[in-house]
Predict the structure.
Amino acid sequence: MITEPLREDSFPRCIRGILQGVRDGRKRSLFILINFLSRCGWSDDLIRERIAEWNALNRKPLNEKYLATLLSCCFGRGSSLPPCCDDEVYINLAVCRPDGFCGRVRNPVTYAWLKGACGESCLYGELRNERCVDGCEGSSFR
């Protein structure tokens, strides 16, 4: 269980790529980010703040009123998981840059949760450490 928001350094490359701003696919990226950040323990206020920063980095920012309306709507209904790693949306957004751990997980949230909870050594099947969660050592999380 996530007890505090996961840090951005635990996010997979695809999500970090989106957070650097996108040329195309701003609305798809927005839904991915809202759901991803929510599932990573971020509060509504933290998400609003980070989305505003992200929007400013986009080649053409989304309208502020559109953002506010969409965020309010999404926060009211709860979050869903973002698309799975094998969804072509990450390729189409040109942010899919797999590392050695991506093939072991199905969803970007799982990647971030494990990296945030267990750390690098466990992610790559090395030694368990005191932060490891049950079942993470040498397992595939697909």
In short: Residues 26-39 form the longest helix (14 residues). The chain has a mean pLDDT of 84. Helices lie at 13-19, 26-39, 44-57, 64-77, 89-92, 108-118, 120-123. The chain is about 50% helix and 0% strand.
